[in-house]
Amino acid sequence: MIDQKTTNPKAPGPRIYHRAKGIREDGAVSALCFTSPRAINMKVATWTIRDEAVTCPRCLEIIGQSKRDPS
User: Fold this and answer.
1) Is 61 in contact with 31 (CB distance < 8 Å)?
2) Element counts in the chain: helices (H) and strands (E)
């Protein structure tokens, strides 16, 4: 029998850390990887301004491209 306490499919996974791009007056933060500015859903993800703390694959790709392209 499967133990329901250890295999809960609704259990939250690790939080995704986005790179912050913009901040609204009300404090909502938009991520670097969003195509249109919108607030990050803080129930499933959060944000940072430190590149080394980012875990979002799309944000990491954008950060990597900007470091390779100095223009």
Assistant:
1) no
2) 1, 3
